[in-house]
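As described in the Methods, two query proteins were run sequentially through the folding procedure within a single session, without resetting any intermediate state between them. The first query and its resulting C-alpha cells are shown here.
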Amino acid sequence: MERAAKGELCFGTIDSWLVFNLTGGRTHATDTSNASRTMLFNINSGKWDDEIMDWLGIPGVVLPEVKESSGLYGQTLPEIFGAEITISGIAGDQQAALFGQGCFQRGDVKNTYGTGCFVLANVGEEPLWSPKLVTSVGWTIKNRTSYVLEGSVFVAGAAVQWLRDSLGIINQSREVEALARTVEDSGGIYFLPAFVGLGAPYWDMYARGIMVGITRGTNPGHIARATLDAIAHQSADVIEAMLDYSGAKLSRLRVDGGAAENDLLMQLQADALGVEVVRPKDLQTTALGAAYLAGLATGYWKDQEELPCIRQETRLFTPRITDGQRQEERTRWRKLVEIARTWGDGQRA
C-alpha cells in the first residue's frame, strides 16, 4: 500500500497494461468503456469514483488516466514494429463489437454468439438502469458518451461443445447444424442448458439444466435441434427484457461471433424474436470496431457516417413462423425456465 501511495505501482485493465508496455511506460491510460468494467468508475461523471476507492483503500494515483475511446494515446516503441505506430482506439470487447456493427443509434441491438451470448443495446447518451441487466459505457467520442444495456447468456456455444465432448453425438462443433437439419423440428424436445445457472435476465445461480419431451423416437438430430432452439430462446429472453426496460422497438438484430455462421441458428433466432436477423460479411466485429475508433481519431474517416460498416454485405434472415406459433413456443420455453429454476430450490439459502 505504501508503494501504491507513492505512485510506484500501477493498476488497470488489460488494455492499459498493453498500452503501458507498447509505449515503453510512457502512457498509462484506458478508455471509458474499459474503465466502467472495473466497478471503480462513475459512469455518470466519467471519472474514477473517489467514494468507492476510499472505501476499498485504493489510491487514485495507481489507476490509469481515462480517455475517450477514439483518441490519441501515444506512440509504440519503434523497436516493437519497426516504426512508431499511433495508438488511437480502445474499447471493451463487446462495446467494440457493437461499434463495429454500426449500432450508433438508440435502440440498435447486436448479439455475439460464442461460448456464451452477449447482447448489447445502444440506449443513447443517458444511462438507462435495469434490475435485470447491466448498464455500462459503450464508447466516448468527441466528449459524447453512448451508454449500453447488456445481458449475458452463460451457456450458448458451450452447449454445442457439450454435445461434442460429453454426449459424443458430433465430432466437431460445426457439425451441429447438419445434424439438426436431419429432422424437421425438435420433435417436442425442449432443452435449457443451465449448466452453471442462468444469466440475464434471471441471474439465478441455482437453476439447473433440464431437457423434457423425450420419447422413444427421440434421436440425436432432435437433441441438436433443441440445443440450437435453446440458444435462440435464451437470447430472446435477454432482448425482450431490454425492450421492456428501454421502451424501444426492435426491427432487426445484428449478429456476429463464431456461432453466427450457423444458418439454421440464425433462422431460429429470427423466428424466436419475430424480427429480421442481419449477419455481416465479416464476423470479427470486435477488431473492426477498434479499427473504426482508431481511424476516426486519426482522420482516416471524417465521421461515423463514412464508416464502411454502413455498407457491409450482409445475409438477412426473416421470420418464417406466424405470431401465434411464436407465442406458443415462447410460452412453452418460459415454462421450461420456471421448471429449471424450481429444480434448484432446495439449494437456495
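Immediately afterward, the second query was submitted; its sequence and C-alpha cells are:
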Amino acid sequence: MKVIKKIAIASLVFATSLTVTTVNAQNDKMKTESAKKAETVTFKVWGNCGTCKKNIEKSVKVDGVNKAEWNKDTKIMTISFDNSKITLEQIQKKIASVGYDTELFKGNDKAYTKLDKCCQYDRK
C-alpha cells in the first residue's frame, strides 16, 4: 500500500511540474510575440505647460498605447505602442485632434482655439 501511495505521489508531482513547464513556455511565447509588436518612438509635439502635458498624454490613452510621456521643455513625446493595434500616424492624429501640432499633423483649429491661453503657442 505504501508503494502505491509513493507511486501516486510521484506521478502527481511529475504531472504538476509538466503542466507548470507547459504554462511557462506558453507565457514566454506570448511575451515574445507581444515584444515583436511593441515599438517605442519619439517625435515632437508643440505645447507649453503642464496642462498641455495632461491633454497630450490623455489624448493617446487608447488601446494599443502602452506608455506615453511628453516633455514640456524639449517638446518631445516618447511613446510605446503595439503596432499591430495602432499606427504612429493614428497616434499623431489623435494628438492633433485635441489641438496640438505634431511632426506629421497640424492640430485641429477648433480644438486649438478652445485650449487655455497658456496652452496656445505660436503656430507655424
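The two ends are 86 Å apart (CA to CA). We note this only descriptively and draw no conclusion about the first query from it.
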